Amino acid sequence: MMQLSPKTFCDTFSSVNTSMPILTGMEFMRRPARLSDALLHEYECVSRMAHVRKWDFDLYHFREFIQDPQHAVVITNVQQTIQWVNHGFANMTGYQIQEALGKKPSFLQGKETDPLTRSAIKACLLEEKKFEGKLINYRKDGEPYWCDVRIEPIFNEQQKLVNFIAFEEEIV
Predict the structure, then answer these.
(1) What whole-number distance in Å separates Cα of residue 166 and Cα of residue 97?
(2) Where is the PAC domain (predicted)?
């Protein structure tokens, strides 16, 4: 399977009209966060994915979360293969975006990652439920770090599971 760069991946959705905001819920009632050009590009990319794939998803939460460039976001397919990560992921882990695509998020785990937490994540994903917890991940250079993780299943309009999204924040 060919892996696309985030820009190329986003460009495949460029035919979607983005001149009008994509509303998936009650976003129009909230004051949107002001994003830098780089973060705005990431937001627009995920917005296009949500629109094309018909996600039943709160884009407002995503927009608020990525305001901090150190926050990592990982989107996988149903088989938990990474399809998209933001620049915050690269900042947090030391892995370049291209290095993460096509891998499973578990490549960040190691000997100190709690097996019970791993099992809890696996169980939640199999049951198509949200997982929230803390775990030890490893940077590219091998340095361990604590990470607060929230993994949510993403369903389409027919309530069929189509992706997972993980929101990750390093615990300092």
Answers:
(1) 15
(2) 129-172
